[in-house]
Amino acid sequence: MPESFPPLAELAADEDELQFTSFTNDDAWELGCALVAAARRDAAPVAVEISRNHHRLFSAALTGATPDNASWIERKSRVVHRFGHSSLYVRQDSIARGTTFEEEFGLDPSRYAAHGGAFPLLVRDVGPVGVVAVSGLPQVDDHRMLVGVLRQHLGR
Predict the structure, then answer these.
(1) What is this structure's pTM?
(2) What span, in angstroms and rounded, lies between the C-alpha atoms of 89 and 16?
(3) Within the chain, where are the H helices?
(4) CA atoms of 48 and 46, how far apart (whole Å)
(5) 143 CB contacts (<8 Å, ≥6 apart)?
């Protein structure tokens, strides 16, 4: 069954809603632990990574995660760093313009992947300061896991 992608407006609304007032190393630890707990609860074979200003603050690989997941995280995170939006938003934004990310930007696919699972760490009135990423599930499920845990973590 094909994945059902969220509409672009929903993806934009998530980014507007899911913002921190600040983001510290302790916040990275707490968010990372919440993602790991959610993945364990669902027996999700994922890798999780959180970075701030390209400094890795949290990294975990659960049972079933593979070295490939680390590569996907790097590639999806590069998209977030370059465009300032979630990797799924960037993908869907290209599609909304009648093209694909790959066709529109011509970036090296071994370095950039506009697939769901990486989300900007946004600090209100500051902007993006880092990335939280998950890899191991179908891309929409990676994205939904991130958004669900962020929403719960931020008490929204």
Answers:
(1) 0.95
(2) 12
(3) 8-17, 25-41, 67-83, 87-96, 101-105, 139-153
(4) 6
(5) 6, 86, 87, 88, 116, 117, 119
For 2, other C-beta atoms within 10 Å of its C-beta total 6
Tokens linked to 131: 């990335």
Residue 129 has pLDDT above 80, yes or no: yes
- Residue 3, token pair as written in the block: 């994945």
Contact 83, 127 (CB under 8 A): no
**Among 27, 129, 117, residue whose Cα is nearest residue 72:** 117
Among residues 1, 10, 9, 2, the alpha carbon closest in space to that of 144 is found at 10
- The DSSP call for residue 7 is P
Does residue 86 surpass a pLDDT of 70?
Answer: yes
**Is 60 within 8 Å of 38 (Cβ atoms)?**
no
pLDDT of 32-52, one tens digit each? 999 999 999 999 999 999 999
Residue ranges of domains in the chain, CATH in brackets: 8-153 (3.30.450.150)
Q: Whats the size of the chain, residue-wise?
A: 156
Q: How far is 40 from 45, CA to CA, in rounded Å?
A: 8
Chain centroid offset of residue 99 CA: 22
Q: pLDDT band at residue 2, thresholds of 50, 70 and 90?
A: low
